[in-house]
């Protein structure tokens, strides 16, 4: 009897540790609510329609932030200001003033517009930092060429 009691408590504590590890790993895999990552690296967003089994496809994006912003937009249109958003500070004031009785197609359109805009801004930001880094790299000399007298005097 006593042995059975002890094994039960030890498995529950190790089970708790396993669930904590899974939660940490899950948080690393899914940094935001409503998105997931495809095997090939794209981030996708979708949301369930209220009181239905169907889902609204919100698109595929290159960054998790863009997918999360698309999800937030759709969630806001479906659930209103009480929705638990990933980025509550990013809901634009004109979105708040619009009516919330939209069709699934209209919600999909608005969410993909927001996601595409965020994705484009982030992609442009990455391209700009890459071009800045490339501009800082000095031109590599051709090692197969003999140095000319002008370049050897400069050094």
Automatic annotation (TrEMBL):
<dbReference type="GO" id="GO:0005634">
    <property type="term" value="C:nucleus"/>
</dbReference>
<dbReference type="InterPro" id="IPR036955">
    <property type="entry name" value="AP2/ERF_dom_sf"/>
</dbReference>
<dbReference type="GO" id="GO:0003677">
    <property type="term" value="F:DNA binding"/>
</dbReference>
<dbReference type="InterPro" id="IPR001471">
    <property type="entry name" value="AP2/ERF_dom"/>
</dbReference>
<feature type="region of interest" description="Disordered">
    <location>
        <begin position="121"/>
        <end position="155"/>
    </location>
</feature>
<feature type="domain" description="AP2/ERF">
    <location>
        <begin position="31"/>
        <end position="88"/>
    </location>
</feature>
<keyword id="KW-0936">Ethylene signaling pathway</keyword>
<dbReference type="Pfam" id="PF00847">
    <property type="entry name" value="AP2"/>
</dbReference>
<feature type="region of interest" description="Disordered">
    <location>
        <begin position="1"/>
        <end position="32"/>
    </location>
</feature>
<keyword id="KW-0611">Plant defense</keyword>
<dbReference type="GO" id="GO:0009873">
    <property type="term" value="P:ethylene-activated signaling pathway"/>
</dbReference>
<dbReference type="GO" id="GO:0003700">
    <property type="term" value="F:DNA-binding transcription factor activity"/>
</dbReference>
<keyword id="KW-0238">DNA-binding</keyword>
<comment type="function">
    <text>Probably acts as a transcriptional activator. Binds to the GCC-box pathogenesis-related promoter element. May be involved in the regulation of gene expression by stress factors and by components of stress signal transduction pathways.</text>
</comment>
<protein>
    <submittedName>
        <fullName>Ethylene-responsive transcription factor ERF008-like</fullName>
    </submittedName>
</protein>
<keyword id="KW-0804">Transcription</keyword>
<keyword id="KW-0539">Nucleus</keyword>
<keyword id="KW-0805">Transcription regulation</keyword>
<feature type="compositionally biased region" description="Basic and acidic residues">
    <location>
        <begin position="129"/>
        <end position="143"/>
    </location>
</feature>
<dbReference type="GO" id="GO:0006952">
    <property type="term" value="P:defense response"/>
</dbReference>
<dbReference type="InterPro" id="IPR016177">
    <property type="entry name" value="DNA-bd_dom_sf"/>
</dbReference>
<comment type="similarity">
    <text>Belongs to the AP2/ERF transcription factor family. ERF subfamily.</text>
</comment>
